[in-house]
């Protein structure tokens, strides 16, 4: 079994139920609700200058750059967004990862390489262990977005009672943004070295609001709707050259964006294969796009996955154009969209898992649009 669990820890993945079904969201550098502006592999369209390295959460309307004392510990800074609850439009939770937690992740990574792919119980066990390591993260602060048009809820009252400082850091329409933090860090259960690093990073918290920018949130659908065409010149997982002229061979092509860390993506593959076989007669094609490539190890894992799931439809490795364009707007996988023979995107993007019957309805709807 080949799993880069250190990457999973630093880029932890959360699978949640959304309107479109189950969707996996990477909460670090591959996050399609968060963009790591210092990641050369997923360079943001908004900023390509390393000087402005930081994090961006468009769905919350929050971005931040790193204070001086954070810059040398960027790999130890974790940030992820929560779902709306009552009058809270969302929370951005920023934490520090102790060195010993990272070391545990590396050990689990080595252990995972000894597990055969067929041992699902062991895979599940070690995956649970790696995700449980997030419980060892030490919180730095939270940016909370309050919808002032709604009545104060129980969640807000309980949350605000836990923090000494509740600094208002901006407003946008009905939304007001607050930075929540305590005067002193909780340094229990971490090593002396991690304690010093954590305290050093924490010392910038009271000044952190000067590094945070707030703006009108941009939803997943709004971001994705900015993409009107799908073009590529790349290779398939089988290492064959391919480009977007392949789209001319079909009236409509369904593109399923997935990732090797996404369980729901992998579980839906057999039904997608059945769908692929069924819609051929309607001049419809289906291709996959492996969002967490290019990467040699991940490509090897992706090949194993599609082989075991019996996938025969083509899967693409994204080129730079796709990585720095379309994929910067994709916050969760699977995400599916449809294109005509010229690569024009037809209809809305679908975020999350659908059943085969539901995908078939979406295909029929778009074929009608083309007529």
TrEMBL record:
Keywords attached to this entry: Cytochrome c-type biogenesis, Disulfide bond, Isomerase, Redox-active center, Signal-anchor, Transmembrane
Pfam families: Redoxin
GO molecular-function term, one example from the UniProt record: isomerase activity
CDD domains listed in its UniProt record: TlpA_like_family
Record keyword Transmembrane helix present: no
Record's subcellular location: Cell envelope
GO CC terms in record: cell envelope
GO biological process: cytochrome complex assembly
Thioredoxin domain ranges (all copies): 212-368
Stored SUPFAM superfamilies: Thioredoxin-like (SSF52833)
Protein name listed in UniProt: Thiol-disulfide isomerase or thioredoxin
Phylogenetic classification of the source organism: Bacteria, Bacillati, Bacillota, Clostridia, Peptostreptococcales
């Amino acid at each position: 079994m080949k799993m880069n669990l250190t990457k999973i820890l630093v880029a932890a993945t959360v699978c949640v139920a959304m309107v479109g079904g189950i969707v996996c969201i990477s909460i670090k550098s591959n996050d399609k609700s968060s963009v790591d502006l210092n990641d050369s592999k997923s360079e943001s369209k908004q900023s390509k200058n390393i000087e402005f390295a930081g994090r961006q959460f468009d769905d919350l309307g929050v971005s931040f750059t790193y204070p001086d004392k954070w810059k040398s510990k960027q790999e130890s800074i974790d940030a992820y967004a929560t779902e709306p609850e009552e009058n809270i439009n969302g929370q951005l939770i920023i934490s520090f990862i102790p060195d010993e937690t990272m070391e545990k992740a590396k050990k689990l990574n080595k252990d995972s390489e000894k597990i055969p792919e067929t041992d699902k119980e062991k895979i599940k066990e070690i995956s649970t262990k790696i995700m449980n390591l997030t419980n060892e993260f030490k919180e730095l602060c939270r940016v909370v977005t309050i919808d002032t048009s709604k009545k104060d809820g129980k969640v807000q009252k309980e949350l605000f009672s836990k923090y000494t400082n509740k600094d208002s850091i901006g407003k946008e329409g009905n939304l007001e943004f607050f930075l929540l933090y305590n005067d002193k860090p909780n340094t229990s259960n971490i090593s002396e070295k991690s304690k010093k690093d954590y305290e050093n990073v924490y010392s910038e918290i009271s000044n952190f609001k000067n590094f945070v920018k707030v703006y009108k949130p941009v939803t997943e659908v709004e971001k994705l709707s900015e993409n009107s065409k799908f073009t590529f010149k790349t290779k398939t997982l089988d290492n064959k050259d391919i480009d977007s002229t392949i789209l001319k061979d079909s009236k409509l092509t369904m593109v399923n964006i997935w990732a090797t860390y996404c369980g729901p993506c992998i579980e839906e593959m057999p039904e997608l294969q059945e769908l692929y076989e069924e819609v051929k007669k309607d001049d419809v094609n289906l291709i996959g796009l492996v969002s967490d490539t290019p990467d040699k190890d991940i490509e090897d894992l992706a090949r194993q996955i599609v082989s075991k799931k019996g996938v025969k439809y083509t899967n693409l490795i994204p080129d730079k154009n796709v990585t720095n364009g379309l994929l910067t707007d994709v916050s969760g996988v699977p995400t599916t969209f449809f294109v005509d023979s010229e690569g024009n995107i037809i209809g809305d993007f679908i975020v999350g898992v659908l059943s085969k019957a539901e995908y078939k309805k979406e295909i029929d709807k778009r074929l009608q649009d083309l007529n």
